[in-house]
Amino acid sequence: MGSMARKERPLEGEDGPLLRFAAALRRLRHEAGSPPYRDLAHRAHYSVATLSGAASGRRLPSLDVTLSYVRACGGDPREWEARWHAVAVELRTESCAGPPQERNGPEGTGSPHGQPCPEVPEGPLRGPYVGLAAFRTEDADLFFGRERLVEDLLATLARRRAVALVGASGAGKSSLLSAGLLPRLAGDEPRRTVRVLTPGPNPRERLEKALAAKPGSGPGCGSGSGMGSGSRSRSGSGPGSGSESGTARGPVSGPGSEAGELVLVVDQFEEVFTVCTDADERARFIAALVEEAERPGSGCRIVLGVRADFYAHCTRHAPLVAILRDAQVVVGPMSAAELRCAVVEPARRAGLTVEGALQATLVAHAHGQAGVLPLLSHALLETWRRRRGAALTLDGFHAAGGFEGALAQSAESLHSSLTERQQWSARQIFVHLIALGEGTEDTKRPVSREELGEDADTATVLARAVALRLLTLDDGRVELTHEALIRAWPRLRGWLTDDRERLRTHRQLTDAARTWETLGRDPGALYRGARLALARDLLTSRDIRLAPSEQAFVDAGTAAEAAAGNSARRRARRLRTLVALLAVLVVVAAIATVNARHAEDEVTRQRNDAVAQIIADSATGLIDTDPGLAVQLGLTAYRLAPTTRTRDALVSTLMTTVRAHAKEVLAIAYRPDGRQLATASGDHTARLWRVHGTDRPVAEATLSGHGDDVRTVVYRPDGRALATGSADGSVRLWDTATPTRPALLASLTGQGGDVRSLAYDPDGRTLATAGTDGSVGLWDVTDPATPALLTRVTGHRDAVRAVAFSPDGRTLASAGEDGAVRLTAIADPRRPRRLAVLDGHGTGAFSVAFSPDGRTLATAGGGHDPVRLWGLADPRRPAPLAGLSGHTDVVGSVAFSPDGRTLASASDDRTVRLWNVVRPAHPTALTTLTGHSTAVSSVAFSPDGTVLASGGFDATVRLAGTDRARVIAHACAHTGPRITRAQWAAHLRYVAYAPPCGRPDDSAAISRPRHGPDADGSDRRP
């Protein structure tokens, strides 16, 4: 059944500032029209649990949460900020007046309500964790867990003059170099000169500065002068982050370590591919760097810190191949013991302890994952700030936002503290500091401070972001402290997704303007024609801010184009067309050569994957505006690279979408014969639709009469009756023997409170009703015109959100907002008997479903694993089988396919996910379906299993076919006009024109779909 916003509990306890503050928040929500908390969550960017907890009266919410709640309800943030501070002062006065043992707030010096006591000094203390930033050399006393890897790196550096340190983003490469390698190199005699640099936009210039002078003693290739590696401020993000050189002393153990050697550390080597845009400059830098280390008699050794997803880029440069083949050290995930050491030892050095439950939680989250160390460090720093006395606790960790939420919470706290104009400036700044990936993940992009502008709003945003360690400002350069922010902050990912193409255009404009300035504003470097038109479009975009140099570049190009006249523009346009055609011919020739040689090397595969993903992104973006074109692009992307992501994009484009109601769709159900679909809505009605496969549904009837939202709908197993339940507290039974003329049979009003869920037993003689009164009613509906209450099943402490009968009708499962799922024996419906209680959904259980064979139960709600599977071999002792993670918000609906091999889950994160549950103890992800613009409330399979239907808060119902071959054949028959050459050129610039639904001989340039399993190993189910 669909997930709904929970009904608030009455405020309890003695009257005081907390209860008065919570009551005021509730009044504000009531004055705003009592929007569901789920709607508030989408506006405020906080979870339902966080926002409802803010108005619970149990503790004072943070100022960020309070102001986000107020803005979502249309309140005055300034007024509520003053209220919050007044309550905080009042709570401090009350709590801190007590004996010392009672003053234990989250920081160890605060009140029980979380506010610091005013009489306890809060001096600047150095935390034992560095947060999002990389470890520096002076942080070596806090750096633990990588001792073995440091030894491996030193040993490799002793054997080879050039070494590559390779690892995923967030694996800790910069920290290992700064806090692991450099202190070891500085530890002993003979003396050793160390220089650290990052490539930046002009890597050869930086290399020349690093090699400008020889060390004072013995042969070498660099000067011992320069910035010390330990001289960087706390805002630095790693070795050489923005600095060009550093010095350290110490030997490299092993043969060949004569005095006067230089060790050149090139951190963030991937900047050669992301920040440096000149291919010739890049090639010359790489050749000079490797030659310096390997020439006879050289006194130089180099260490390269490389992100793993740029490995293939490195293999395209011959000088780097030997290093990668013979002298690479891989930074993989930490072992459990190493993680525990990294968590516990810094705290122990600071005289602190880490609660055992917190240790176990952190190790469980981070074990086996290579790129999570910045999130771990940030979560530990935020937990330290919320410590209790000398202990870091699991409660403090959860208060900080958890493992993945701590960083997002810090970023959201920055955003909510800004004015509307400052929030706009923040968006410009953060997206400007990111280099968009081309077949790789997005990366950070250092820029000069002047490039961001000198206005007061920009200065405010930068100051606050640097204070929170989200940004690094050093030596006139600004950059993200770590790329983990791109992955962990949903708002930033949304900005990048919304503006991706315009951001690419803006990046190209930035590079072009910089080149123009470098060439002394040479008119020959100006934009003309289509590129100038695209650049002018950026001037009218509110979401993109141009730097003064970029504005001048566009203005100069506009003036030059006007002066040149129509003739010059036509010549330039013909030249650009010729160049584009030549580029296409080159690409086509290259593809034909590769096909002729049958050489599918790794580089080609990566290119195809990247191009296919770009095409797939374009396809999903066209679903609502040009569905026919979207399908053809999706087919092209899938045939070019049949990966999980292109498959998901294809299936999403093939869904049939219908706007079913004026307001949100809250529940859906198929008639047992599969020929009719029922929908329930917040517009107080239910509707019946004639359906055939994924063809567009046809409305047959509207059921009205309820006085509030219709929250649930269910067919009797024989399909001749339908039940609807409403927030008005009533259940209505309808005769659907004639689908187009349903007739009201009876109305039940004895449930009490909102009716949230309905279920018929397998023989259709008993109806279960559930609602906000916490009970489940069992009704005799043998004669639906005269229903009779049999009994009530109690036990839940809060509203019951979902009920379901087992296939044999002997067991009833009910899910409640108290987080419990209860199993009740109902072989005799008049005498129900408790079997078991399942826990695990701490923020509420919202949906339950039995597998067709009755041996597995799926439950859904909130928590770390929002979907859980339970074995029911003995219903009195259910066995936990597995938790399904992947959704990023609560899951409100689950459903098994008729054959029991697939489970579908619908979530507030706007996606529907399909899972292979053939082995329920080892489920695997199959497909992620997108398309809904808001939360997905309900999901259901057709009785024959060929269609998956979903309903959402965007008022739409979407139908997706589950047989891929059948769906693709159907798609080509319903795409409308074949994709034109102009459309193809706009989206597939470097791929030969080959319409996916055209003539057989048109598709030669796109590989045909493979039969059997996909290239990613999954089966053919979406």
TrEMBL record:
Biased composition (Gly residues): 217-229
WD repeats: 658-691, 703-735, 748-781, 793-823, 838-872, 884-917, 929-959
Domain HTH cro/C1-type: 24-80
Region (Disordered): 95-122, 211-256, 999-1022
Keyword S-adenosyl-L-methionine belongs to the record: no
Bias kind Basic and acidic residues: ranges: 1011-1022
Listed SUPFAM superfamilies: lambda repressor-like DNA-binding domains, P-loop containing nucleoside triphosphate hydrolases, WD40 repeat-like
Organism superkingdom: Bacteria
Alphabetically ordered keywords of this record: Repeat, WD repeat
InterPro entries: Cro/C1-type_HTH, Lambda_DNA-bd_dom_sf, nSTAND1, P-loop_NTPase, WD40/YVTN_repeat-like_dom_sf, WD40_PAC1, WD40_repeat_CS, WD40_repeat_dom_sf
Gene3D superfamilies in the record: YVTN repeat-like/Quinoprotein amine dehydrogenase
GO molecular function, one term: DNA binding
Name under which the protein is recorded: HTH cro/C1-type domain-containing protein
Provenance organism: Streptomyces dangxiongensis
